[in-house]
Amino acid sequence: MVPNRENDLKKSKGMKRINNLYPQIYSIENLQLADSIARKGKSKQHGVIVHDKNKEANLLKLQEMLINKTYKTSPYSTFKIYEPKERDIFRLPFFPDRILHHAVMNILEKIFVSTFTANTYSCIKGRGIYAGSNALKEALNDVEMTQFCLKLDIKKFYPNVDHDVLKQLLRRKIKDNDLLWLLDGIIDSADGLPIGNYLSQYFANFYLTYFDHWIKEVKRVKYYFRYADDIIVLSDNKPYLHQLLAEITNYLQENLKLTVKDNYQVFPVKDRGIDFLGYVFYHTHVRLRKRIKQNFARMLANDKNRASIASYRGWAKHCNSKHLIKKLLNENV
């Protein structure tokens, strides 16, 4: 069942349905722009090289497929990654699929972002890890009202996104039937949301956006933070957080067919800190997550390189771990 219990949500800012988007997606100018964006940093990839042998004809062919509605998502190839955990990653050909995904997002990104609350930080320009980190640090300045933390995430979120629910949610925002035909086909091209698809990260964020509005506008939670399916709520009241957890669990099950992982936690912030966005947050300071420190030390021992060192320095810049980084690098401290 799609969320529709609270009339307040229907009146939320940015919920007006939008039409006449599909021709903007298949315009040759947008397809050319999408091609240029999709290839950034990938000019030596085989798929890009093959596409470039007949680039203009290919773009015209893609335009024709979209106009005639004969486009169909290509077969996926898959591979596994093992850090930070084992996952299957899905990959599509550069032409036509990865170009098309960028063409779609050139038009839909602003529309998706207009539905997001200010408390979500994944796949939004200017609102990434460091923006989320700064917001959480600012919230923790209110020590009295952030004594306790509810931390949870969703069980196998991407694989468990329900296609019918996602399609219904999209129809709450979009009324362009041609565009909905295209998005439905992409959604149905794999089970759940395939990790690695450019569109999947936006679909995932949109899938939870009405939940975000429910949290903020119906439950009126002040200190709420979400990055993908990792969720943090802060309060001065531990029983309240347990009650809210029960309501969140019920909402996700009833409306989005999702399950909260059983490793959820409600705990005093001062006792263990909040592990979120690669850091551990306390009221008085912020540390690097233990695994990031271990990975840095392992890199220095086995495969020391300048780019990785610069990356870890960047992580340390946003917390109280500069001394640690200098120690690992045997610099003067």
Name the poorly predicted regions.
1-14
Order of helices and strands: HHHHHEEHHEHHHHHEEHEHEEEHHH
**Proportion in β-strands:** 5-15%
Radius of gyration: 22 Å
N- and C-termini, Cα separation: 58 Å
Q: What does this 3D model show about the protein?
A:
- This protein is α+β, with helices and mostly antiparallel strands.
- Strand 7 (274-276) and strand 8 (279-281) form a beta hairpin.
- It has a 4-stranded antiparallel β-sheet, sandwiched between helices. A 3-stranded antiparallel β-sheet has the order 7-8-9. The protein has a two-stranded antiparallel ribbon with strand order 1-2.
- Helix 3 (28-38) crosses helix 6 (94-115).
- It is built from 17 helices and 9 strands.
What's the topology here?
Blueprint: H1 7-10, H2 22-26, H3 28-38, H4 46-52, H5 55-68, E1 77-81, E2 87-91, H6 94-115, H7 129-139, E3 148-152, H8 157-160, H9 163-173, H10 177-187, H11 198-207, H12 209-218, E4 223-227, E5 230-235, H13 238-256, E6 265-268, H14 269-272, E7 274-276, E8 279-281, E9 286-288, H15 290-302, H16 306-317, H17 322-328
Antiparallel strand pairs: 1-2, 3-5, 3-6, 4-5, 7-8, 8-9
